[in-house]
Protein 1
Amino acid sequence: MLNTHVYGPEAPGTPTVLAIHGVTGHGARWRRFADDEVPHARVLAPDLRGHARSTWAPPWHLEQHVADLVEVIEQHADAPVTVIGHSLGGALACRLAAARPDLVRALLLLDPAQELDPEMCGTIAAQTIEFFDFTSPDEAKQEKRSGAWAEVPERVLDDEIAEHLVRRDSGRWEWNISCAAVAALWGELARPAVGAPSSVPTVLLRADRAHFVTDAQLTAMPDGAEVVAVPSDHMVAQEIPAIVGEYARSLIG
């Protein structure tokens, strides 16, 4: 069973959301979004296999991650859930809905990553291994600021550092993730895109300053899916939570 953060009310009948983070992320990244944007919902936010406080044991392929998420839903929910998935989480959300549509009420895909360029994925996997640690938290923070976290509010980035950066016995700092799992997952993101069943209401928010949503991803989307360009880089829920919250609330009800 994955380590799963649970936010929001526990009252019977409360709508349930499964929030799935991306590669190198963690479930607690959803805390602010849960508290601020969907306080009426119960949010299940697991640490994926190979990340944070969940097991780091392989296998790390997409099918295993989907099986892990099925366990989370069956353990914590007694009705179909609305699934919000970011990046890798979006790929897993689609595969979860395709494999177990009985568990999924609706999908909100945040800049999902599917069928990415294989050469790019290989390069990023190699860079993950070569540049995995940092000399200090400031260096780790600067690395975030130089990429997709450039416009994320300071307090949100500070949360990320406090929650997810750890000091190893060597004295160097790392994100609390398995290097091997992350490298393997970049290979998984080159696999063919999978779309959700047309019976599952689906909204895809495409970040207009990122390049993760491929033509193959869009082609795989079910009939009736809504695709919306939003003013953000890849960290959509952290950069523009209010916009994401509007779409989430419309799907959750």
Note: The domain at 4-252 is CATH 3.40.50.1820 (Rossmann fold).
Protein 2
Amino acid sequence: MLKKLLLMGVIGLLAACSPRYDWRELDVADGQLRAAFPARAQTDSRDLALAGRELHFSLTSAQVEGAVFAVGYAPLPEDLRGKPAARELGEALRRSLYANFGAEPPAGMPEDGAEIEVHAPPGQRDAWLLARIWVTSSMLVEVVATGSRRSLSPEHAREFVRSARLRP
């Protein structure tokens, strides 16, 4: 009887100490990107208007205590594949990150793959994000971690965003 109680106590302690972040690497964006997600991820899709184009956008995301870790991706329209005009989609997506937070975008927008950090203006909601955006020859890809200062630590945001690697 004492052994059973002791075993149940140890199991209870182990369950209470389970980590909130359970990192796992996944291939996403139709296999074009690999990222480490902090929890089980799910994928949803919808159509999205961006820079005057309609894109079929898929979002693979995981949530941990109010923070969201996501990879969004959309195949480029055939007429833009491999063309400089596709960069306009990346620019529009970068601008939307700032617009969604009511923040002013910088004069010089970050380059493909550069980290983008956006905070909601003071006095508004307590929210921030860390993101990276790429325009490849065939796809638009966004990696983003977002949450409040309490729900998303800079360390967890960087771990997720920096884990994202485009496949050759």
Note: The beta strands are 24-28, 33-37, 42-50, 53-64, 67-75, 116-119, 128-135, 139-147, 165-166.
Protein 3
Amino acid sequence: MNNTSSDDILQLKQRLAEQEALNRALLEKLADREREIDHLQAQLDKLRRMNFGGRS
């Protein structure tokens, strides 16, 4: 027996689309933060070299 109505299917498709959109947004936010971390790490490395020389 198939008790799944077309309304149920449409609702599930809508929820799936919402979850996929949220996933894309979160992945983009994660990528932004990873880029920021890389940038800050490069700045930190530069400052360390300036203060302590190249052998630190």
Note: Residues 29-56 form one domain.
Protein 4
Amino acid sequence: MLENRESLIANHQSKIVNRKSGIVNRPRRLRATPALRAMMRETELNPRDFIYPLFVRHGQGRSAIRSMPGVYQLSVDEAVREAEAAMNAGVSAIILFGIPLEKDPVGLENFAENGIVQQAIRAIKKEIPEMVVVTDVCLCEYTDHGHCGILNTGEHFQMGLPEGYVLNDPTLDVLAKVAVSHAECGADIVAPSGMMDGMVAAIRSALDEAGYENLPILSYAVK
């Protein structure tokens, strides 16, 4: 019985080897060994491919963000230390998000010379000049109403639009000021996220006019 079974198996294997399957595309050929897989892989993620977010605030030390365990709001000196640790781990880019001291309808600290993000940019670029510093360009954290733009109310009120409506073009003016302010402090990339119509074009125009035509814009409004 055993000999008969082995004979059947051998006969079956012979038929498999000799049969023409008609398969033209055999990508498994390129996955046969670890060396081949390493050579042919399409995507490989390394620390240098990531951008590390840092949340900077006024004051000293670090404050835990309760809704994000393990993540902290950092003072400028702590942000520098965190950026150095990231660089030592192979992460060569960070993105800065600012927490202002005070909020107002326009978000004035967002483009202030001594705003928290402006301070952080200068400090990080001074200590780690090779670090790529990306900056978030938006208004929501800086406005007292929490929207990503100037509201149609008070001195900004425009007839024909609902009260409280986010005004597009006045918001573009502010975003452009923020981007230029970050560029002046040494940012390598500005990253608008406010979802305003014409946002990238307005920022590009302002940067070019201020002499920063080579500064990249990384829009990540779709999120």
Note: The chain has a mean pLDDT of 91.
